[in-house]
Write a structure and sequence with these properties.
The complex is a heterodimer of chains A (487) and B (518). In chain A, 75% of the residues lie in helices and 1% in strands. Chain A has helices at residues 3-9, 11-30, 35-59, 77-95, 98-104, 110-127, 131-149, 156-187, 192-201, 205-221, 230-237, 240-247, 249-263, 270-293, 298-318, 322-347, 366-369, 371-385, 392-405, 409-434, 448-461, 469-486; strands spanning 67-68, 73-74. Chain A has a two-stranded antiparallel ribbon with strand order 1-2. The longest helix of chain A has 32 residues, at 156-187. Classes of the chains: A mainly alpha (487), B mainly alpha (518). At the A-B interface, helix 18, helix 19, helix 20 and helix 22 of A face helix 5, helix 6 and helix 7 of B. Chain B: Residues 65-120 form the NADH:ubiquinone oxidoreductase chain 4 N-terminal domain. Chain B: This is NADH-quinone oxidoreductase subunit M. Chain B: The chain crosses the membrane at residues 6-24, 31-50, 70-98, 105-123, 129-149, 161-180, 200-218, 230-253, 265-288, 295-316, 322-344, 365-386, 398-421, 442-460.
Amino acid sequence: MSYATSLYLTAAEIGLSITALVLLLLAAWNGDRSARLLTIIAVAALVGAAIFSIGLFERSASEVAGRAFGDLYRADAFGSFGKVLIYLASAAVLIVTPRFFTQLGGYRAEYPVLMLFNAVGMGIMVSATDLMTLYIGLEMSSLSSYVLASFLRQDDRSSEAGLKYFVLGALASGIILYGVSLVYGFTGSTNYDGIRAAFALDFSTGALFGVVFVLAGVAFKISAVPFHMWTPDVYEGAPTPVTAFFASAPKVAAMGVLVRIAMDPFAGEVDAWRQIIIFAALASIVVGALGAIGQQNLKRLLAYSSINNVGFILIGLAAATAAGVASVLTYLTIYVAMVIGSFTALLMLRDPAGQNLETFADIAGLSTRRPALAWCLLVLMFSLAGIPPLFGFWGKFVVFQAAVQADLVALAAIGIAASVIGAFYYLKFIKVMFFDEPTRDVETSSPVSHWAVLGVCVAILSPLGYLLTIPLGEWTAQAAASFVAAM
Amino acid sequence: MEFPILSLMLAVPLAGAIACLFLGAHTARMVALVATLVDLALGVLLWLNYDIGGAQWQFTERAEIFAGFSYALGIDGIALMLIMLSVFLMPICILASWDAISKRVGEYMSAFLLMEVLMIGVFASQDMFLFYIFFEAGLIPMYLIIGVWGGDNRIYASYKFFLYTLLGSVLMLIAMLWMANEAGTTDIPTLLNYDFSPQAQTWLWLAFFASFAVKMPMWPVHTWLPDAHVQAPTAGSVILAGVLLKLGGYGFIRFSLPMFPEASAQFTWFVFVLSMIAVIYTSLVALVQSDMKKLIAYSSVAHMAIVTAGIFAFNAQGIEGAVMVMLGHGLVSGALFLCVGVIYDRLHTREIARYGGLAINMPRYALFFLLFTMASIGLPGTSNFVGEFLALAGLYKVSTLVTLVCTTGIILGAAYMLYLYRRVVFGLQVNEDAARMPDLNAREWAMLAPIAAAVLWMGVYPESFLAPMRQDIAALEARVARAAPDFDADNTIGTPREHNANYVGFAHGEARGEEGAH
């Protein structure tokens, strides 16, 4: 393994890091005047990184190993798939960000820089094959996230969100570290291959505790029940574009970490972690659905919705098969489109004075004021509820298919029955927009950039999305094969 | 490759639906009418080209454009008839909404056309998951139709409709996933002949039953129907009663019976008991309704109970009868809702007590209403008679008790329908405004006359409708024969007696001694 190959395999992260550092200097010299320019450069860098990752993904079939830096980092198909999603999601969120902060007078040049560092951290997370690399990636992403959450520093809610996120995130990091130390203590290795080999020889109770703690820490990051408490508060308090970001890219990264840990170092101990995942899955679906019912704030509602969705993703992981991993990736792809679409639509909801609309009362009768936007939201909400023929159904379809194929029929049956509870509040969204009388004036036009992002998301989620099922199936199967090779 | 007529039948209303979203009120109405009429013409073409006695699955199309399932269309005789019902009712629904809907017309027409796409899709699907997608997707436009254009309590009704039917159908998806995994195919014609193990069948049957029973709707999960019917706009009720309720029966015939024959046999009495309760209970409930739409909604539940009983009779007569009841009920209950709509448009109330003596000022209307009332009762010469008679005759072969109870339901049906008719059309004109209502206009004629003609056609010459289905139902009967349960009235022909009943087997003289023993 030459050093040059290692650099090549990590070129996306390295490129993003260098761009971020350069932008940091530019930000320091030019101040906030160049914020918009820096955003454009950052978006370009993220798209470039995504394109590079696509290239790496296509080549991963031939160079299966893709190991860099003495197997601290692995640029396999799974990692590349995750990175494409992460970078594209980050870019999409950046595109719709500036207008929100410009209105509040708070857009500063650090914002795109923080996003880039965050993206680097997430890229490292999904590719990490050593517990230390994993921790570095996780912290890099988390620390940028804490700052982003409290980016509106004059706003109490934003500061509160940042603080809450920091305290609970630090706790989660601590739990992960504790688990890592236990795993290291019982296996003598932090490398995934080493851990798997050691577990195959002897899997003691202490090691089990290590596994549980690592999983619990990651469950914090994906906000799976019972570690979801921070989500509604942080999502509600953080500025909307930041919330959109939290709900999309970091979720993908944390899910990637969870899948890789479960399917690589802990692959031999499926029975040990499967029950944890099953519990978290069902609890997330139910709590996410029930918690959302009483909510009036749309961001809070979407926070519960994301908890609910994580539950469905975990069902795919519980299958612990290649099809299960593929279904997780399919679901994540569709989920990212749904989340970014929903939050973009939310960002487009403003009253004529430019004030953001955030509650159900505000969007009453939207379908008469902004029909196009209301229909887009209708597609998004039915998609989130998993009603065919919208593409959100496909995500649920593949995870349940994986579960049924792995003989987890009871899990699938309970999960899908609980999804009906979730349908209730998505229906409420549509009811308020379509059935109620309008109460508030809304801004009548939105910038092209927002429409572009929303349009792409809605086009994917419309029945046209089913045309993607074949390529998506192939890509996710290829990504999932990364682990089967390792198994 | 032959001409993809089924895809075209899906594409025409779909294109219309998309166009209507962007059009003004009047243009949208015209586009919707034209699209539905084109689909009707295509449907007629489909029927004319259907080869009776030919291949079981005709007009098949297949394209592997999705992962996990395929875009496979094709119809047999049963599906053909139900597609015809859908395309026949759609232009009438558009006409019924012509003036009644004045706000957001484009979106309304769009929802209706989408509904048509999905209904045709359900009946034409040859892939299990494609079927599921069409089946479930119907919830979206119907939710909007009830919620946006419905009556005062529309929000409650729309939620109830959506969540009830969704809860019913999600378990079916899991069952389908299991079946696809087990059988290794999602192709319906292949699955029709796949034998699942009897233990698995029990669970699969229950999962499918949960879905179809709610759609049907069967007692006790029928409660969403009266709410949805009452709150939906007239055309929404017509589609709901006319076609959507048939999805349940179609599902039983297409999935439950042929795919799980043993489980169906096992649950026959369960279905019979529910059907018997439904027939009697909902008929009694219908008797005391003061809201016209609610009365007809409950009568739908009663009629659908005869359908389920007929399907689970496990013989050709019963199943043919069930399909004929579905077709007849689709026309008749649709027409009855239209009749209610006609007077609702004039007086804006569905209270029976607000009307009376309409025969005086609306004689033509009274005539149509009478015809459909009689058809609903099952008068010979109308569509429902054929179906009900066949279904009950088939049922009689398996259980006299069930037949007795279901027939009682028909008598009760005559009671509540005639009672309704008497209160609305006969008697004195008690209300001034009701007495001033004008008779049918040309548009309403155009709505009611075709249905009246179809009702009589089906009643007088049912062979047109039975012929395409006969072979398919015979195949279904053969498929389920091995599981057909025995019942009390196993009326096989016994060996005849040697002599007439009044034959005296001895000469007069010989019997004299025995007579004394009396």
